[in-house]
Write a structure and sequence with these properties.
Elements: E1 11-13, H1 15-27, H2 33-51, E2 57-62, H3 66-80, E3 84-89, H4 98-109, E4 114-116, E5 131-135, H5 147-157, E6 163-166, E7 188-192, E8 195-196, H6 204-208, E9 210-214, H7 220-224, E10 231-232, H8 236-240, E11 257-261, H9 268-279, E12 285-289, E13 302-305, H10 312-318, E14 321-324, H11 332-344, E15 349-352, H12 355-360, H13 366-378, E16 382-384, H14 388-395, H15 399-404, H16 406-417, E17 420-423, E18 428-431, E19 436-439, H17 451-465, H18 469-491, H19 498-509
Parallel strand pairs: 1-8, 2-3, 2-5, 3-4, 5-6, 6-7, 7-9, 11-12, 11-14, 12-13, 14-15, 15-16, 16-17
Antiparallel strand pairs: 1-10, 17-18, 18-19
Helix pairs in contact: 2-3, 3-4, 9-17, 10-11, 11-13, 17-18, 18-19
């Protein structure tokens, strides 16, 4: 996803923040609520025509709130364009108020039939293809749906007719991407005023389909005044442009020196993948420190060092950035290497991944507790890159706790360990205690062994070349995700591997 100029396209907002922006537009910018509702409906109707112009039958599923008001207004536009339109209402008409009531009465005045959603026919009883518009809840839902509604939503999803959701698919938590019992699975989602965080994380992308943002005419100033606690989504180009550019005097010393620590017994491949990632991101020199370093002589550009003939402290002094964890293991050598690194690398950028994180999570070990204390109190330039399982161990909670509110989880991790946290997964998050970024790119094919090792090597190389560790972490995540998407386009989801992503990584940096 490439960046846009408008702030609405480069930031994600919570449901509460989106409502604040809506109120700001009405009260401060004097934009009538009914105008915003009609603009939302018009843009949504245009989306239906852009993607499904041949469908003449519209079933508009409406609630009694403002999301339903958007649906009532869309029903009018569809009827005026000659479509056969039916409104299927969830709830009592007496609950419809304010602007939604205005658009409801206008729909009735056009002769659009309104029937209870509970009587919505099964797919077998439909006489022809139709477009379903979901205007039931939008962003207003924050509790699990009743069993009856869950059954109804499952039945709607099973109809295999195209669905366009207004603002957010009903049943999807727009803050976290959780499924609140059941959720509409749309092919397109028309998001109004803001992108919502839950649309891009956890189950969001699966249920939103293609997301179309309509700012409804709000100026950049409105977003600028409401950016507090928003999440950036700036795109690959934005972060690439914030990295130093090589000039004609560039040499390997200026390109950064990486040190990668890991590759323990039977896990040498993890360090090989990390080293390859560093090399393909322009690292000037890549050193590896491993008890089985001879295995990596297959990569001639890498300088290999073994504990029996190399001094780790000396290697640390030479490096600009150091990654520890890929294939590290959790034996005595691994623990000693982590401890020695923390004690001697206060002026270096550290990337901790995999078993380095699992060692940190050992809460009953006094030596590990001392390492944790050193991290928390003395070092300002480390990057922790947990996947949800590692994050759960670091916070002593369940993976479900992490996934149900990834934004809260990454804030907890940063508060406990400091530094920069990269919480990997669908909608990877990067947070340094002040600014947070979400990467919407990537695909399920990347859920294979070695992906985290590749990311560690990428971030290590970028951190060695930049004084901005947050920018290096963000660019690393975007590079990794975009390379994965390119591999999926070429080889299919089942053919995505870290090795196949390497060539794309270098090209994406150009």
């Amino acid at each position: 996803m490439e960046p846009q100029q408008n702030l609405s396209h480069t930031h994600l907002f919570s449901a509460q923040q989106s409502r604040q922006l809506d109120r700001f537009a009405i009260r401060t910018l004097d934009m009538p609520g009914i105008l915003l509702m009609k603009r939302a409906a018009w843009h949504a109707f245009q989306t239906t025509q852009n993607f499904y112009p041949a469908i003449d039958k519209f079933d508009i599923l409406c609630g009694t709130g403002n999301n339903g008001g958007d649906g009532f207004a869309l029903a009018q536009f569809a009827r005026l364009q000659g479509k056969e339109v039916s409104i299927w209402l969830l709830g009592d008409t007496q609950k419809i108020q304010n602007d939604a009531l205005t658009t409801f009465k206008e729909a009735l005045a056009l002769g659009i039939p309104v029937q209870p959603l509970s009587k919505y026919p099964s797919a077998a009883n439909h006489d022809k293809e139709r477009l379903i518009v979901d205007a039931l809840f939008g962003t207003g839902l924050d509790r699990p749906l009743s069993a009856e509604l869950q059954t109804l939503i499952h039945a709607i999803n099973a109809k295999e007719f195209p669905i366009i959701a207004l603002d957010t698919p009903s049943g999807l938590d727009s803050n976290s991407g959780r499924i609140l019992g059941a959720a509409i699975k749309a092919q397109h989602t028309c998001s109004f005023i803001t992108y919502k965080t839950g649309q891009f994380t956890l189950h969001g992308k699966d249920h939103c389909g293609q997301i179309h943002l309509f700012d409804l005419g709000l100026p950049d100033d409105a977003y600028r005044q409401n950016l507090s606690d928003s999440i950036g989504m700036h795109g690959l180009r934005y972060w690439r442009d914030r990295m130093p550019k090589p000039d004609s005097t560039h040499h390997k010393g200026r390109a950064g020196v990486d040190l990668l620590i890991g590759g323990n017994s039977q896990m040498e491949g993890a360090l090989q993948i990390a080293a390859s990632g560093s090399l393909h991101c322009g690292a000037g020199l890549v050193h590896i420190y491993s008890p089985h370093s001879g295995y990596l002589r297959d990569i001639p550009e890498v300088q290999c060092h073994a504990p029996d003939n190399s001094d780790l402290k000396t290697l640390i002094a030479k490096a600009g950035a150091i990654a520890i964890g890929p294939g590290l293991g959790q034996n005595d050598w691994a623990r000693q290497s982590l401890q020695q690194l923390i004690e001697n690398a206060y002026d270096k950028t550290l990337i901790l991944d995999a078993d380095a994180l699992n060692l940190l999570a050992q809460k009953d070990d006094p030596e590990i507790a001392a390492i944790r204390k050193n991290l928390q109190q003395g070092h300002n330039e480390w990057i922790l890159t947990p996947h949800p399982g590692e994050a759960a161990r670091l916070l002593n909670c369940s993976v479900e706790d992490i996934q149900n509110d990834r934004g809260h989880a990454i804030r907890q991790l940063q508060q406990k360990y400091g530094g920069i946290i990269v919480l990997k997964g669908n909608g990877s998050l990067i947070f340094d205690g002040k600014q947070m970024e979400l990467c919407p790119d990537g695909n399920p094919g990347m859920a294979v062994g070695g992906m985290g090792d590749l990311l560690s090597g990428i971030i290590c190389a970028l951190a060695a070349q930049s004084t901005d560790s947050f920018a290096a972490a963000c660019l690393g995540v975007y590079l990794h995700a975009n390379a994965g998407d390119r591999a999926a386009e070429t080889f299919g989801l089942a053919g995505v591997t870290p090795s196949r992503m390497l060539e794309s990584i270098g090209k994406l940096l150009d």
